Amino acid sequence: NQSTVNTAYDRTLPDPDYSSLKPQTSLNLFSSINASLSHILETNPSSVLFGEDVAFGGVFRCSQNLREQHGSHRVFNTPLSENGIAGMAIGYASMGGLAIAEIQFADYIFPAIDQIVNEMAKMRYRSGSQWDCGSIILRTPCGAVGHGGHYHSQSPEAYLTHTPGLCVVMPRGPRCAKGLLLSAAECKDPVIFLEPKILYRSAVEDVPDEPYKIPLGKAEIIRSGTDVTVVGWGSQLRVLEKACNLASEKFGIECELIDLRTLLPWDAETVIQSVEKTGKLVVSHEAPITCGFGAEVVSTIQEKCFLSLEAPLKRVCGYDTPFPLVFEKYYVPDEWKNLDAIKEVVEFAQ
Amino acid sequence: MASIRVDGNDVFAVHAATREARAYAVSNSAPVLIEAMTYRQGHHSTSDDSTRYRDSDEVDSFSNQSDPLKRLNKFFEEHGWMDSDDVAAMENQERKEVLKSMESAEKRSKPKLSTLFEDVYYDKPDHLINQEKELMEHIKKYSEQY
């Protein structure tokens, strides 16, 4: 039934004007997600929340009090079985309910990849839209956390964005997490919602108490500039902001910083417009550089902006090794590596 | 598949079950599942506070009734093979050994940064050689930051 528009992607919907949405509460990322999940459970009677350890509040506290507030038939634990969690979400959503499933660490999403890639992503396509499992939000903590090592630090977005049929979203903080999660709850496509775990406690913002939505598939320019376009997502934006500040202070370089917010489908238009202005691009992500999502961004931009380019397009990413433990500090694409790349492309163009 | 369920906190029962299972496996060339029943007294990990989801009374009860070391110590005491002083001396000695090992491990220097790029493959491929070079040059250039 294609008669209704998938409003979750409505790009005509402007970003919320946060200054006008009062009252607001200072919340960290897990509290903002918690409040958003509670709102969804409250307003969508078909919604259920399940995963490992979600009943007592979740290992990152995202689901605290939700079972008490909404009932044990709405918020419940699953066995330790990622393919089961994904499969259950698919089954529940295919019957029309909103399934909010949690994979405890994104590093553990791999047992579920067959369910996600071959079932979740293809149900609509293989049935010619006769059936779908669009009412899924699969939430999972991702990214470096300082001590996560190989199996508590991964950013698996490249595997997921390579799968047509999925929507892949990553918030950079409590404010946009709420808007993106509430949009995901109405999205007619299954959404993989990647939550940078280092931000759960450390990212604190004033979040409007009322519900609001941020359109999926739309990037946000969080800093304007004319010298170079810098693109990232999730917790990497904090690193990139530091790099942009350093570039401005030390070298008078003004960067235009863009948060993609949605990786699939990604807002190429916003990045294209920016690069046509600046002529230069630096993309940065923690995930290993080879075939990381940065490669997709760079490929598209070189194709669409070739004649506007003044320097090669740079990627500043994790190395092509498993995520290390004791060497995390050297592995991650920090502000110094990004500053160096920004300086390099600006100097190339001069 | 043949299986046996045993009290996993009874060292003698586990030994007997394992002995029988091995004999069965060897003589039948078939696998055996040993289901050893136990209880996790500690937290799931250092990041876990298990009092959030279980009563401390429950933990104490299992500890008193079923802790394998307590049971074994009691068994030895009842036979007059060890007394509580022997146990204390043994625990003290073990604690010293562990602390000594920890101290010496803590004193060991960190591995070389070059190990970051080793053991990804049997031989280090070109792209990793290049990335390692990039990292080393970067650290040299921004040495105050590292």
Q: Mean of residue pLDDT of chain A?
A: 97
Strand content of chain A: 15-25%
β-sheet strand percentage of chain B: 5-15%
Number of strands of chain A: 14
Q: Which residues of chain A sit in consecutive blocks of at least 5 with pLDDT less than 50? A: none
Quaternary structure annotation: heterodimer
Strands side by side in the biggest sheet of chain A: 3-2-4-5-7-6-12
Mean pLDDT of chain B: 95
Helix percentage range of chain B: 40-55%
What about the largest sheet of chain B? 2 strands, parallel
> What is the terminal separation of chain B in angstroms?
56 Å
The chain-level structural class of chain A is alpha/beta
Principal-axes geometry of chain B comes out as: extended
Q: Please write the string of helix (H) and strand (E) elements of chain A.
A: EHEHEHEHHEHEHEHEEEHEEHEHEHH
Task: Give the biggest sheet of chain A.
Answer: 7 strands, mixed
Query: What is the number of helices of chain A?
Result: 13
Radius of gyration of chain A: 20 Å
